[in-house]
Amino acid sequence: MPAPPTTVTVPLPGARSYPIYIGPGLHSSHPALLRDQVKGTTCLVVTNTVVAPLHLSRTVAALEAKEGLTVHTLVLPDGEAEKTLEVLTLIHDKALENALDRQTTFVALGGGVIGDMVGFAAAIYQRGVDFIQVPTTVMAMVDSSVGGKTGVNHPLGKNMVGAFHQPNCVFVDTSTLDTLPDRELRSGLSEIIKYGLIRDPAFFEWQEQNLPKLLLRDAGTFAEAIQRSCENKADVVAADEKEAGVRATLNLGHTFGHAIENGSGYGKFLHGEAVAIGTAMAASMSRRLGWIDEAVLQRTYDALHLAGLPTELPLDSPMTREKFEKLMSVDKKVSNGVLRLILQKGPLGTCVFTGDFDRQAMIDTIDDFCSELG
Ligand SMILES: NC(=O)c1ccc[n+]([C@@H]2O[C@H](COP(=O)([O-])OP(=O)(O)OC[C@H]3O[C@@H](n4cnc5c(N)ncnc54)[C@H](O)[C@@H]3O)[C@@H](O)[C@H]2O)c1
Ligand SMILES: O=C(O)C(=O)C[C@@H](O)[C@H](O)[C@H](O)COP(=O)(O)O
Ligand SMILES: [Zn+2]
Questions:
Q1: Cβ atoms 44, 74 nearer than 8 A
Q2: How far, in whole angstroms, is CA 254 from its chain's centroid?
């Protein structure tokens, strides 16, 4: 009997708490932890054209070992540009063609794009069916598979159509990272750094020491980074599941970042790259406001650079101040017409979620980041 894997729990009221299982080779060592989460007699595993040839057979084998379970599969096109309502409809087409009923479970096998889309498809299929997250990117393992934010993009705004829908469990087989390209791996580091900046200075200090080992894919270091990230995310989600307040802090850098993702054409930047530039913009704005000192600004930039992430817009960027303002005006944190932002304030590891800041500081920051372009 293999030792139990590392388990982080997302505590939620009403018997909705769920486990995040983390470990190398979980598909082989602990397949029962996955299949036991399927309650009915059918499930639909959804993945994409990149992940399917690499990992689908392992997930299907783990599920098919359950007696009486019929496993359906669907392979979607890959990429952020495919995170749309049109593509999501293919999931419902497949489910209905196979007469999948309300007891079915959807299984999301892939990165954050698949996880967000399959979760939303589950939230609205026959008004809600179960789903399981099987994340295969760093981004999905440390952030997107946890917490139940699901949805798709709209041409006019990122993640603009979606629902809160929590998974039955998150099954993190860290061995799937062996096939992840370096660029996608670095992108996920952006959200790991975020946890340090918004609430966990000790984790940030650990990152300052260990980011080089993460880039070298050291397995033990990765296991710790994933566990500590999931613990941070689980704490925040438990405190504020539907983002009435503190959960918004998980959006550090995202208002600028989402504008960059949309304004550059979904897919030019990976989410974590856009968030890295957005985090640099937010830090610069905090410094401009006098809310952080030069040392905190420098450490923020240094960590992003150490992770191999960008902190400025590329020279050929189509972003302009007008584009930023238009896209940021539909951010989900706008309340009664006032944009609220997450900004670092005080010592490293502290931030605020506020609409109470000098708007000129935001404009000047945007101008500063756009000034080298075109
Ligand atoms: N719901 C949330 O809380 C939340 C949090 C963070 C990010 N997100 C969303 O997640 C998305 C970004 O996620 P992502 O960075 O995982 O992008 P992604 O899902 O597009 O994956 C990145 C690339 O890696 C490929 N890939 C995935 N696993 C692989 C593997 N093991 N080996 C080789 N290739 C693999 C994918 O096919 C894709 O080409 C964005 O849409 C973002 O908005 C959501
Ligand atoms: O879980 C959350 O809450 C987050 O904000 C996590 C973010 O990293 C993630 O990118 C999320 O999808 C952004 O949410 P949105 O509400 O700004 O679309
Ligand atoms: Zn994010």
A1: yes
A2: 11
Ligand 1 centroid–CA 75 distance in Å is 15
Q: How far apart are CA 196 and CA 214, in angstroms?
A: 15
Helix (H) or strand (E) holding 300: helix 294-306
Provide the CATH number for the domain formed by 6-179 in this structure: 3.40.50.1970
Identify the pLDDT of residue 106: 98
Pick from 39, 47, 25, 45: which is nearest to 168 by CA?
39
pLDDT at 3: 82
Assigned token pair, 163: 């629902």
Residue nearest to atom 21 of ligand 1 (CA): 111
Expressed in angstroms and rounded, the spacing between residue 254 Cα and the centre of ligand 3 is: 7
Q: Where are the domains of the chain?
A: 6-179, 182-370
pLDDT for residue 374: 58
CB 254 near ligand 2, within 6 Å: yes
Q: Which of 85, 139, 170 to mutate to test the pocket of ligand 1 (most atoms within 8 A of CB)?
A: 139
For residues 260 and 6, what is the distance between their CA atoms, to the nearest angstrom? 36
What is the CATH topology of the domain spanning 182-370? Dehydroquinate synthase-like, alpha domain (1.20.1090)
- Kindly give, in sequence order, each residue whose CB lies less than 8 Å from that of residue 211, ignoring residues fewer than 6 positions away: 189, 303, 306, 307
The residue whose CB lies within 8 Å of the most ligand 2 atoms, and thus the one to mutate among 137, 195, 233, 254, is 254
Q: Could you list the mean pLDDT of each consecutive 10-residue stretch along the chain, which spans 374 residues?
A: 90 96 97 96 98 98 97 98 98 98 98 99 98 98 98 97 98 98 98 98 98 98 98 98 98 98 95 98 98 98 98 94 96 96 98 98 97 71
